[in-house]
Every structure is written in C-alpha cells, then in structure tokens.
Design goal:
Length: 291
C-alpha cells in the first residue's frame, strides 16, 4: 500500500514494505529528487538499515553463543510496517518483533520511522525501543538514493559534493568482499568539496568517520538546484552509487558499519553497535533539504 504526505512545496510518497520513502517530488515543477528504483540498476529508493549496516562475515553473527543469519543491511527493508500515525505532512511506520523475526534477530524490539515535512525540509527519525528483558544490540542507518543527475542532458560528472566545513578525510577501506580492513587511506586534506565521478566508486562505497561537518550537499555549477543532508546525529557517513553508470547517488548516515575482515562475530563486541537496556528508547534523525 502507498501513502502520501505533502505541503505547498513538496509531495512525498511511501510504501508499507520497508517503511520506505519512494518519491520526493517538487510541487513547483514536478521534478523528482529521489531515485525511482529501476531494477536494472538498484530496486530500492531509500531503505532503512537495521539491525545491521553492511555485511556480517558469512552472513552470520553470534548472540550468547548461538549463530544467526542476516543478509546485508539486515531485515528492516524486507518486511511490512504498520502506519501508527498520519497527518497531511507527517507519517510514522512501525516494525515490531514477531516469531519470524526472532529466528534471525533474537531480540524483542520495535522500530519506528517517522517522516515529517516542514517547508522544503524532510526530517526522518528512527526510534528503537527495547521490549526485551535483556540488553539488545543493533545498528541503524539510512540509505536514500537521490537522482544524480537531476536533468536530462547532464552527466554524473557535472556534480560535486560539498561539506559545510573543510575536512581532512581518511577513507575506511573495504576489501573485495565488502568488509573493512584495519587501515585507512588519506582521501582529501583541507577541502570541503568532492568532484563526482564513477571512478570514485570502483572499490564500492566511500565511508568516513570523525567528520567535522554536519551537512553534505549534492550540487552542480550548471544550475542552483541542490539536495542537502544534515547527518550530525550519526558517527559514520557512507557515499555510494553503482559504478555502472547508475543515475543516482546515495548519502548514508549510519550508526554502525560492516564487519572488519577479522571480526569474531559476537554482536555485543561489534564496533559501532548501539546497546540499549530494557525499556529504553534510542532515537536519531537526519534532515534532507530540497532547494
């Protein structure tokens, strides 16, 4: 089932599967800003990553000595959510544990995703509540894919990324299987811009930590349209596209990340995981401004 929220500037569409936003459309001229989910490239629009971000070694992890299996980016994008609140300019989806989910993620949880539209800004909030009698462990992250280029006749290389602070960035390096290695590579110094090219993504995503910036924007010198994300509540930022010429770019704020290649699989010791005690709620949010 699909849902719509809107104001005088933007119209947003959603589906219950994955609690996923599927469209960001300008009311002024009908321009679509969110990737359309063409399966020839990538079938998602803006999936939610939970309870893992990225991959775990052999698709396996351990809890209390028992082994469980999860696919890349977890289970949240694969299941139907219920709508628990809806207004003309906001909507909230909830996914709650059940017997099926407990077989692959042995924690009693609820995950609420709330989308709120304010002028030309979309606020996306994740709230994870621990309904279990024990501490739960999880990662949570966003994976929105934005149209890049925005217009016909443009190319991906016409665009660049702009941080709001000058950065000295080191790249968290991935091996060929998509797991991190224990070294970083210098990526840029004293700069706030990254010119885009498909060659940047020949080894998969760009992943950064310890950023000074709170925002990143997709821009071009060809016009003044832009997409700006505030990711200040997240410790990791991934940037990704398929290097096959796919016309989109993903900006991905994360709590947590893929396994290191030498990780032992115990979820309670996995770097970047959030731990949450009984009855507590963890919340984080990011904003996307369309201009």
């Amino acid at each position: 089932m699909s849902y719509v929220i809107e104001n005088d500037k933007l119209k947003l569409s959603f589906r219950a599967l994955g609690g996923e936003m599927t469209s960001i459309r300008s009311k002024k001229d009908g321009l679509e800003y969110l990737w359309k989910g063409d399966e020839a490239y990538w079938k998602y629009h803006s999936p939610v990553l939970f309870p893992i971000v990225g991959k775990v070694l052999n698709n396996e992890y351990r809890v209390d000595g028992n082994t469980y299996v999860l696919p890349q980016h977890g289970l949240a994008r694969l299941h139907e959510y219920e709508v628990i609140k809806e207004t003309p300019a906001s909507i909230s989806f909830r996914l709650r544990y059940n017997e099926e989910l407990l077989k692959v993620y042995p924690f009693r949880f609820s995950l609420t995703i709330s989308y709120t539209l304010q002028e030309d800004t979309i606020k996306v909030q994740y709230s994870v509540h621990n309904e279990d009698y024990k501490t739960i462990y999880f990662s949570v992250g966003a994976h929105p894919a934005f149209m890049c280029p925005l217009f016909e006749g443009e190319s991906f290389n016409d665009y660049y990324l702009e941080f709001n602070e000058k950065e000295d960035l080191n790249l968290m390096k991935l091996n060929e299987q998509g797991f991190f290695i224990r070294e970083k590579e210098e990526f840029m110094k004293n700069s706030n811009t990254i010119p885009l090219s498909l060659d940047l993504f020949k080894s998969d995503a760009l992943v950064f930590s310890e950023l000074k910036s709170s925002t990143i924007a997709i821009k071009t010198k060809k016009h003044d349209r832009s997409i700006t994300m505030n990711f200040s509540q997240f410790p990791f930022l991934g940037i990704w596209t398929k290097n096959t010429g796919a016309p989109f770019l993903c900006l991905e704020p994360w709590h947590g990340h893929a396994d290191y290649e030498d990780f032992n699989g115990d979820i309670s010791k996995k770097p970047g995981m959030v731990s949450l005690t009984t009855g507590q709620t963890f919340s984080c949010s990011y904003d996307v401004t369309i201009s």
